[in-house]
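hi support,

uploading two proteins for the ticket. first:
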Amino acid sequence: MTDERATLIAYRLDTAKEKLKSAIDLLENGDYKDSVSRSYYAIFTAARALLATKQLDSSKHSGVIALFNQHFVKTGIISREASKWIEQAKNFRERADYGDFFVVSKEEADAQIQSAKKFIAEMENVIQRMK
């Protein structure tokens, strides 16, 4: 792995952790809809970090998820559960950001944060094994 690629991967993982911290802060402040949005972006950014290990990326969210599933989930490198976490987080984020009268509970926001924590940890473990 080149130094440039390793730097990109580390940067994306750090960014994912920053977004997770923002999600936690928003949860603690009672901003549950924004918390689920930040949790999704934490997951999304961690997925992009993993994609960078194979020099893959997409300009679209659906493209990132498709590449993630194709190159890492279907090959058994990443758990199927991680694929569910990213899909659920994406759907939740879209409803929270764009849905009229959509309400997010504290428990739902916290559950998404827990999924994001597990997702990021799994990405870090796989990236470490790939070095």
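and the second one:
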Amino acid sequence: MCSTDGVKVRIASYNVEFSRSATPEQIGEMLRPHDFDVVGLCESPAGDWTERVAHAAGLEHWFAGEVSSANHKDKYKAILSRTPLGDTDEHRLGSGSGWNPASVVSATTCVGGLAITFSSLHICASGSSDGHAFELATRILPTLGPGPVVAVGDYNNRLEDDAMLTLDRAGMRSTWRDLDLDLTGAFTWNAFAPDNSRAGVIDHILYSRASSGQVRAGGIIEMAQPLSDHKPIWAEIVFPVG
């Protein structure tokens, strides 16, 4: 959508826990009413699973990677989009002392005449310079673009952790920093054990600071009956044009 102040893009990210607790149609039907332009999924099963979610969500275009997190069964990364996807790619990550491999799937799409590079990832918790986040910041993100870059997924780090600060210094800003939300006590894992969850908010939507994007809305999608051990997150960002 184009307006006088830019292009509005509605974005979501969801770790679907290899569809253990919901069908792809249930996940797609949950996403559909939110009218998202692009969605990043992680821990997605193989086969036609991503296509089935996309169809149920009303998103015609999709791309799924081929690197499964930690070589586990059915933990792939995927992108769903309302507009066509181009320059699809997958970037393998394998550094640090945690689980390997990780990966990032990326694609470009055009929303309201603006080309955006969108990435969906699943990485391991790490420090400032010895793991997936550092590798993402120094090796992958600099190759994406031009234009706005958005990187969503399960980062397995809280906003204040060194790994996330490394990404911030690399020019990627979290939508959580722009939203007027109190995240104290909030969490995105484990949705099935709310009384015992101490992980905090470990799922994030990042956008390139150079894009001059403005975050207008966003948050954690709460469900009475969770469809995964993670909660979906979302944001609405307006990117200037011209």
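thanks. also noticed: The helical segments are 24-31, 49-57, 132-140, 162-169.
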